[in-house]
Specification:
The chain is mostly beta strands. About 5% of the residues lie in helices and about 50% in strands. The protein has one helix and 28 strands. A four-stranded antiparallel sheet has the order 3-2-1-28, covered by helices on one side. A four-stranded antiparallel sheet has the order 4-5-6-7, covered by helices on one side. Strands 8-9-10-11 form a four-stranded antiparallel sheet, with no helix packed on it. The longest helix is centred in the N-terminal third of the chain and has 20 residues. The protein is globular, with a radius of gyration of 18 Å.
Amino acid sequence: MSLLRRAIAYGLAVAVAATLGTVASARASTAVVLNSDDDTLSVVSGDSYREISRVHIGRGPHHLIVSPDGRTLIVAMSGSNELVLIDRKTGVESQRIEASDPYQLGFSPDGKWFVTASIRLDHIDIYDAKTFQLVHRLPAATMPSHIAFARDSTTAFVTLQGTGSLIAIDLASGKVNWTVPVGPTPAGIITRASGTLLVGVMGSDYIAEVDPHDGSLIRKIHTGNGAHNFLASPDGKTLYVSNRVAGTISVLNADTLEVTATLIAPGGPDDMALSPDGRELWATARWRASIDVIELASGALKAMVPVGRSPHGIFVY
């Protein structure tokens, strides 16, 4: 490891370790935030609602995910073409794995497959999740963005922002099952408990429910301009949809998909996370370089925490 890489790894370890120091607090809502335009990682305290550290992590950090065993935080670095693995207990960077423009990332429900979407280089990569060895690479026109999986782990679904389409891929063979139009600039996607898919249609004001077998449109649910991404509550009863252009977050009944409330989240809300106690919703505000913290009981915007430029992925301890 080079001296520069060692310095980065050490700084990252200190930053994330600072997070772990507050996890023992009563509310324990401490966030790791990826600032895409600053190439940095911020740690934000949920007790004081302020940024407590920021460190350079590499080029183009966008999304992050926890490994299936819960031990590792995996950060996708699209600009530097790598995955950064961080030990959740110690905050120490454990490994960097070469990967081609990993913008979005996800594990299949059975933990067998690991998939990345390359929004810049227009391809989708399927890896063995145990070894991170590349198994299939598929060209995808254009701008593959967000990823969801069939509940039986046979299929990955990826939104294609550039063509307004959704693609379904057989994970074992790497073959395309179908590609269908879903609306202008589709972004976030999630699989419902029923197995149907929900797609955020960012170029409009609705989310689309789609049949996973053939991609046919079931219905549209209007949420707000720039419908972008999803978050499901731990009990599965509630869905949150960030509407980036509208500056709102829609609260939906997960069974009926009825919009039950609209929360104000100014500045281009994108990725979201719940505090451990379930009382707060944290959202990255891409256009305002801050984090919106919303009190769910009242719907009030409780805090706006300045971070780096274009905050994107967020994980709350």
